[in-house]
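Lecture notes, unit on protein representations.

Consider one protein chain, 177 amino acids long.
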Amino acid sequence: MKNISTSSFAIFLFCNLFFYQSHGQQQKTRSEFWNNVRFGGNVGANFGNNFSSVLIAPQAIYGVNEDLGVGLGLNYSYSERDLNRFDDFTSTIAGGSVIAIANPIDFLQVSADFEYLNVNRNFRDNRLNDNYWVPALFLGAGYRQDNFVIGARYDVLFNERRSVFQNGLQPFVRVLF
């Protein structure tokens, strides 16, 4: 229950930030707001010993200024572990995220993504199947060339028992237009 209230507070805070930016002291017009929104997302892959996972995550980022952006995203991933073992499984993960990106120097982008994800795991032995919610806080960095970023991110809340990923490190590719 603590995780739900934490994520609710984060979403509330994010929505208020968007409201302030779009309706604050300057009273920006709707078209000016949308001129500062970039759409895109990232894709990722995680491969390990008898394990594979792919991620698709569309995003909308509001450019606060040239070096800082905040936004929302959706997440979907599919994972599977080698189908020749007792603990083999497939999983689907779906959820949402709150994103902050910064460009401290021209070619570097750093990011923080808070995700709240629903995990659905299906094992060979159906008695082991489970479905649960889990938070993730990814801190990342990548090489940026215009709208294209390639890098890696790490889940600082990684828990080997709850996560379907073998480790907290994920490479990513992000493109925003």
